[in-house]
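Write out the 3D structure for:
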Amino acid sequence: MQHDFLSAFMVLLIVLDPLGNVPIVLSLLRNTPKERRFLVVTRECAFALVVLLAFMWGGDWLLHVMHLTDASLEIAGGVILFLIAMGMAFPGMGVSFSGPEEEVEPMLVPLAIPMIAGPSSLATVLLLASRQPDRAWTWAGAIALTMVVVWLVLLSASALSRRLGKSGLVALERLMGLLLAAMAVQMLISGLHTAFPSVSG
Protein backbone atom coordinates (compact mmCIF):
# COMPACT_ATOMS: atom_id res chain seq x y z
CA MET A 1 0.00 0.00 0.00
CA GLN A 2 1.76 3.14 -1.26
CA HIS A 3 1.28 6.53 0.37
CA ASP A 4 1.90 10.15 -0.51
CA PHE A 5 2.10 13.20 1.77
CA LEU A 6 -1.66 13.72 1.94
CA SER A 7 -2.58 10.09 2.56
CA ALA A 8 0.16 9.76 5.18
CA PHE A 9 -1.12 12.90 6.90
CA MET A 10 -4.69 11.60 6.91
CA VAL A 11 -3.70 8.19 8.26
CA LEU A 12 -1.56 9.73 11.00
CA LEU A 13 -4.27 12.22 11.94
CA ILE A 14 -6.83 9.45 12.35
CA VAL A 15 -4.41 7.20 14.23
CA LEU A 16 -3.29 9.93 16.64
CA ASP A 17 -7.00 10.68 17.16
CA PRO A 18 -6.79 14.15 18.76
CA LEU A 19 -10.58 14.44 19.12
CA GLY A 20 -10.67 11.13 20.94
CA ASN A 21 -8.03 12.44 23.33
CA VAL A 22 -9.98 15.60 24.19
CA PRO A 23 -11.88 14.04 27.15
CA ILE A 24 -8.65 12.45 28.39
CA VAL A 25 -6.77 15.76 28.21
CA LEU A 26 -9.57 17.51 30.09
CA SER A 27 -9.37 14.83 32.78
CA LEU A 28 -5.57 14.84 33.02
CA LEU A 29 -5.37 18.62 33.23
CA ARG A 30 -8.38 19.23 35.44
CA ASN A 31 -6.11 20.09 38.39
CA THR A 32 -3.60 22.03 36.27
CA PRO A 33 -3.91 25.83 36.42
CA LYS A 34 -5.26 27.29 33.19
CA GLU A 35 -2.14 29.39 32.67
CA ARG A 36 0.01 26.22 32.62
CA ARG A 37 -2.14 24.15 30.26
CA PHE A 38 -0.64 25.76 27.16
CA LEU A 39 2.85 24.86 28.34
CA VAL A 40 1.89 21.31 29.31
CA VAL A 41 0.12 20.52 26.01
CA THR A 42 2.96 22.08 23.99
CA ARG A 43 5.60 20.14 25.92
CA GLU A 44 3.78 16.81 25.60
CA CYS A 45 3.20 17.28 21.86
CA ALA A 46 6.90 18.10 21.44
CA PHE A 47 7.85 14.92 23.32
CA ALA A 48 5.51 12.89 21.11
CA LEU A 49 6.91 14.47 17.93
CA VAL A 50 10.48 13.60 18.93
CA VAL A 51 9.49 10.00 19.70
CA LEU A 52 7.64 9.59 16.38
CA LEU A 53 10.50 11.08 14.34
CA ALA A 54 13.08 8.95 16.17
CA PHE A 55 11.01 5.85 15.52
CA MET A 56 10.67 6.78 11.85
CA TRP A 57 14.38 7.47 11.30
CA GLY A 58 15.38 4.32 13.18
CA GLY A 59 12.80 2.13 11.49
CA ASP A 60 15.09 0.43 8.98
CA TRP A 61 17.68 -0.36 11.64
CA LEU A 62 14.99 -1.79 13.94
CA LEU A 63 13.58 -4.00 11.19
CA HIS A 64 17.07 -5.26 10.34
CA VAL A 65 17.93 -6.06 13.95
CA MET A 66 14.64 -7.87 14.54
CA HIS A 67 14.75 -9.65 11.15
CA LEU A 68 11.29 -8.39 10.20
CA THR A 69 10.00 -8.11 6.65
CA ASP A 70 7.91 -5.29 5.23
CA ALA A 71 4.99 -7.70 4.75
CA SER A 72 5.01 -8.83 8.38
CA LEU A 73 5.11 -5.24 9.57
CA GLU A 74 2.28 -4.22 7.26
CA ILE A 75 0.09 -7.13 8.39
CA ALA A 76 0.86 -6.47 12.06
CA GLY A 77 0.20 -2.75 11.57
CA GLY A 78 -3.13 -3.53 9.90
CA VAL A 79 -4.16 -5.75 12.81
CA ILE A 80 -3.21 -3.11 15.38
CA LEU A 81 -5.01 -0.35 13.51
CA PHE A 82 -8.10 -2.52 13.13
CA LEU A 83 -8.20 -3.19 16.88
CA ILE A 84 -7.83 0.52 17.55
CA ALA A 85 -10.61 1.26 15.05
CA MET A 86 -12.93 -1.21 16.81
CA GLY A 87 -12.27 0.54 20.08
CA MET A 88 -13.09 3.91 18.48
CA ALA A 89 -16.22 2.80 16.63
CA PHE A 90 -17.55 0.44 19.32
CA PRO A 91 -16.51 1.43 22.85
CA GLY A 92 -15.91 -1.67 24.93
CA MET A 93 -14.53 -3.58 21.94
CA GLY A 94 -11.08 -3.43 20.43
CA VAL A 95 -8.14 -1.89 22.25
CA SER A 96 -7.98 1.27 24.32
CA PHE A 97 -4.82 2.90 25.61
CA SER A 98 -6.54 5.16 28.09
CA GLY A 99 -4.65 4.92 31.31
CA PRO A 100 -5.89 5.63 34.82
CA GLU A 101 -6.65 9.22 35.63
CA GLU A 102 -3.67 11.11 37.02
CA GLU A 103 -3.83 13.51 39.92
CA VAL A 104 -0.56 15.23 39.00
CA GLU A 105 0.54 17.20 35.96
CA PRO A 106 1.42 14.74 33.17
CA MET A 107 5.07 14.53 32.17
CA LEU A 108 5.78 12.34 29.11
CA VAL A 109 3.45 9.61 30.44
CA PRO A 110 0.55 9.16 29.87
CA LEU A 111 -0.22 12.08 27.54
CA ALA A 112 2.79 12.12 25.19
CA ILE A 113 3.20 8.34 25.48
CA PRO A 114 0.99 6.39 24.91
CA MET A 115 -1.96 8.75 24.36
CA ILE A 116 -0.37 10.66 21.44
CA ALA A 117 2.64 8.56 20.38
CA GLY A 118 1.15 5.16 21.12
CA PRO A 119 1.67 1.68 19.65
CA SER A 120 -0.57 2.35 16.65
CA SER A 121 1.12 5.64 15.67
CA LEU A 122 4.60 4.16 16.20
CA ALA A 123 3.68 1.19 14.02
CA THR A 124 2.32 3.55 11.36
CA VAL A 125 5.45 5.71 11.10
CA LEU A 126 7.64 2.61 11.12
CA LEU A 127 5.57 1.16 8.30
CA LEU A 128 5.80 4.36 6.24
CA ALA A 129 9.58 4.50 6.67
CA SER A 130 10.12 0.84 5.83
CA ARG A 131 7.85 0.73 2.77
CA GLN A 132 9.11 3.95 1.16
CA PRO A 133 12.42 4.90 2.82
CA ASP A 134 13.31 7.26 -0.03
CA ARG A 135 10.48 9.59 1.09
CA ALA A 136 11.67 10.03 4.68
CA TRP A 137 11.46 13.83 4.52
CA THR A 138 7.90 13.57 3.19
CA TRP A 139 6.93 11.42 6.17
CA ALA A 140 8.74 13.79 8.55
CA GLY A 141 6.70 16.67 7.12
CA ALA A 142 3.46 14.69 7.42
CA ILE A 143 4.29 13.81 11.04
CA ALA A 144 5.11 17.44 11.87
CA LEU A 145 1.91 18.76 10.25
CA THR A 146 -0.16 16.12 12.01
CA MET A 147 1.37 17.07 15.33
CA VAL A 148 0.54 20.75 14.71
CA VAL A 149 -3.11 19.77 14.20
CA VAL A 150 -3.03 17.56 17.32
CA TRP A 151 -1.51 20.44 19.29
CA LEU A 152 -4.20 22.88 18.14
CA VAL A 153 -7.01 20.43 18.91
CA LEU A 154 -5.70 19.62 22.39
CA LEU A 155 -5.20 23.30 23.18
CA SER A 156 -8.84 23.81 22.22
CA ALA A 157 -10.05 20.84 24.27
CA SER A 158 -12.25 22.88 26.63
CA ALA A 159 -13.83 24.90 23.82
CA LEU A 160 -14.42 21.81 21.66
CA SER A 161 -16.01 19.97 24.56
CA ARG A 162 -18.43 22.85 25.16
CA ARG A 163 -19.22 23.38 21.47
CA LEU A 164 -19.62 19.78 20.31
CA GLY A 165 -20.88 18.27 23.54
CA LYS A 166 -20.34 14.69 24.61
CA SER A 167 -22.57 13.24 21.87
CA GLY A 168 -20.80 15.23 19.16
CA LEU A 169 -17.38 14.03 20.29
CA VAL A 170 -18.64 10.43 20.39
CA ALA A 171 -20.09 10.73 16.86
CA LEU A 172 -16.82 12.08 15.46
CA GLU A 173 -14.86 9.39 17.28
CA ARG A 174 -16.96 6.64 15.72
CA LEU A 175 -16.70 8.16 12.26
CA MET A 176 -12.90 8.25 12.58
CA GLY A 177 -13.02 4.64 13.75
CA LEU A 178 -14.92 3.62 10.61
CA LEU A 179 -12.40 5.35 8.35
CA LEU A 180 -9.49 3.81 10.24
CA ALA A 181 -11.04 0.33 9.97
CA ALA A 182 -11.22 0.70 6.18
CA MET A 183 -7.55 1.76 6.07
CA ALA A 184 -6.57 -1.15 8.31
CA VAL A 185 -8.32 -3.67 6.05
CA GLN A 186 -6.57 -2.20 3.00
CA MET A 187 -3.26 -2.46 4.82
CA LEU A 188 -3.94 -6.12 5.65
CA ILE A 189 -4.86 -6.87 2.04
CA SER A 190 -1.67 -5.20 0.81
CA GLY A 191 0.47 -7.07 3.34
CA LEU A 192 -1.05 -10.42 2.46
CA HIS A 193 -0.60 -9.69 -1.23
CA THR A 194 3.11 -8.98 -0.61
CA ALA A 195 3.60 -12.04 1.60
CA PHE A 196 1.70 -14.46 -0.66
CA PRO A 197 1.91 -13.11 -4.22
CA SER A 198 1.10 -16.46 -5.83
CA VAL A 199 -2.07 -16.90 -3.79
CA SER A 200 -3.30 -13.32 -4.08
CA GLY A 201 -2.43 -13.17 -7.73
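Residues 5-200 form one domain.
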